[in-house]
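Journal club prep, notes for RB
We'll compare a predicted complex against what the paper describes. Inputs for the adenosine-5'-triphosphate case:
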Amino acid sequence: MGKIKAIRGMNDILPQDTPVWQYLEKQVEAVLGRYGYQQIRLPIVEQTGLFKRSIGEVTDIVEKEMYTFEDRNGESLTLRPEGTAGCVRACEEYGLLYNQTQRLWYCGPMFRYERPQKGRYRQFHQVGVETFGMVGPDIDAELILLSARLWKNLGILDHVRLELNSLGSAQARSNYKERLVEFLAQHESELDEDSQRRLQSNPLRILDSKDKNTQAILAGAPDFLDYLDEESKVHFEQLKDYLDDAGVKYRVNPRLVRGLDYYCKTVFEWITADLGAQGTICAGGRYDGLVEQLGGRPTPAVGFAMGVERLVLMLQTLQSVPEGYGRIADVYLVAAGQAEQSRALQIAEWLRDELVDVSIQINCGGGSFKSQFKRADKSGARYAIVIGEEELASDSVTVKPLRGEGEQLRVRRDQLITYMRSLLIV
Ligand code: ATP
Ligand code: MG
């Protein structure tokens, strides 16, 4: 019998890669904390109806990407394809939207049955940021500034660009939809298959088609910005003013629509040219109608989601994770025999008590000095602490630089902390 393998498109994140993830997660948490956002933790499984009602029946996600199954009691459940719906569900369920504003974030796996390729997987991770109860474009601007700060802190700001659009009110969208269908109907036979089907069911999504031919036809389509309602227009203008004043560069892209039905007014994407076709690293917008659509009171809302895998790929490509990040240990202890190992265990514990920010790994499982030093090297440690027969007898250790930093030195035990501190904590 063959070995069991992971599911296609569902990746293990191996120890060699987790430092990038941890680095990213730390930066994300720090930035969100500095803007006063609170974390919310949500279940991975929800009732299927939640996603059908929020994302929309005629979307890629609901039509063909959801992992839906029947629970043992016959209830239809779905592995979440995105986080906004569950976040709204939880906020409503616990009254978090009643007479108050919320700034929330979450992080975790999402599931979509898509064709796996670079930057596109079946289990992938998003950091989602959602805000509720704030009606004006100031909060839209805050979200964009927050994401821009994150790119800056991650060292990728120069590699991403911001695209903006407004989808207007439901009425404006429906007016525009009519004109768009009129226009596209004249070119029906030239459209790609998906777009032909969408002409009836969800024509706005055609704007997002990746098909070259369809894109060419769309170049002559009526411009949505001409159909914007007055309120949305003012909102959009004000948002652009805020961004101009804050020095954020953007491009208005009238073709920018999102793959989910619940968006209105502001939509935006951060895009990079460094990842090929899967260039959108962060996408979001306003969804003022969603809370009500899911049974709550009308509540303005705006949020975005980042694709963690795509950000990780970027950090790896641009090598923007700080040098030494993810080093297994700073110090590696090497011991000659059993009595020396006992001393090494004591010294390692003592160093961990005293040097709280230093990571210390001890060789376990014996081995010659040569093989122990090989492991020391692999750990990335800057220094080895060696305990041989002589060191044991003289109550000292030998501190050996592993990366060409200074001289090897015999150090008495009572001077070791001071000495290590001078080496490691400048
Ligand atoms: P795309 O156009 O790339 O399919 P989307 O519009 O479906 O993206 P959203 O639902 O808005 O994406 O999700 C927000 C972000 O999550 C995307 O911008 C992307 O970075 C990431 N993302 C979405 N789907 C996947 C996936 N299958 N694998 C990896 N990341 C993904
Ligand atoms: Mg998609």
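Talking point for the session: The mean pLDDT is 95.
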